[in-house]
Amino acid sequence: MPDFKLPDLGEGVAEAEIDRWHVAEGDTISEDQALVDVITDKASAEIPSPYAGVVSRIHYGTGDIAPVGAVLISIDAAPDQDVDVPPSASAEGPQPGGENARDVGEVKATPSVRQLARSLGVQLHGLAGSGPGGRILRADVEAEGSSPSPPAPHAAERREPLRGVRRSVATRMSEAHRRVPPVTHVEECDVTELANIRKPFNERSSGAPKLTYLPFIVEAAAAALEQYPALNASLDEVASEIVFHDRCDIGIAVDTPDGLVVPVIRNAGLKSVLELATDIERLASGARAGNLQLTELQGSTFTVTSPGAFGGLMATPIVLYPQAAILGVHKATDRPVVRNGHIVIRKMMNLSVTFDHRILDGMAAAKFILKVIEKLEHPEPPPG
Question: How confident is the model at residue 355 (pLDDT cuts 50, 70, 90)?
């Protein structure tokens, strides 16, 4: 029986981190039984076994990085009478990472929930899940993790491995910092009228998604990218060519318990504000739950990062290489401004665009952000 190799997990994914083994050496496994959870720079994934047999060797331990095509596990043919043994009847030897394979196999939980449990020190085996079919949800783990526990001895410092999404973010940010000569341009935007549109719509629309500033900003950015395509480009360093993309797929940075994740809104320029709001709500919820598909995290041509109320006065976001630019959205606050010679209070927000100076110059970035501001300061009310 052939060795089982790490399969191709999607476009641009060259390697994966071993997050959790569901089996141990010596286990008898069945076809389609969960073998291992892996983490890529895009998402988490559970990989099933393509055939039944006996695990003879596990080639990578928890926390190891395996390239696509590398042998993950060797599986020998099992005696006929043992092939259909269920996962719960597997041997009770320890698996890589120190957890009992039989215990892990009985737990119904997604990789992100397992990761949360490890960070909180919660044992999933024996924990009652409130989800469908007894599946353990994040709320179950958080409730268990908040239970009183004996005080831990004082330690001078705490250390944790740089793994999973955090390691992926570290790698991508280091690459961007090394490759991209960044410049940041900042402007302030009056979002008073936009705030006046959002509030009554949200009050009267019970079934529609809540309108935050973000869908309006994504709509404005998509319109401005059409007029200034250099910001919707990337640099092919091997060919020494600037690639101008014929699609507008905007990534939105989402803060999750595991780190920053950037799901993608496809064809953002063709969607209404309400459609964008629906996409943003779905993608952000999926990112925080850790259940997005790899295709929902790949191929963005431009990025918007909006920390909302935590956006601060101004920041210089890092361009996600090989993209040309990223738009930073900062906190909207009441400020005194001058209008027609008088000091008035308006809802103001700073916007910043950081760009790759190899691909475009400051004038293009300035014109782009002014176009975004023009659309935000003269918003069209959504229907309904």
Answer: very high
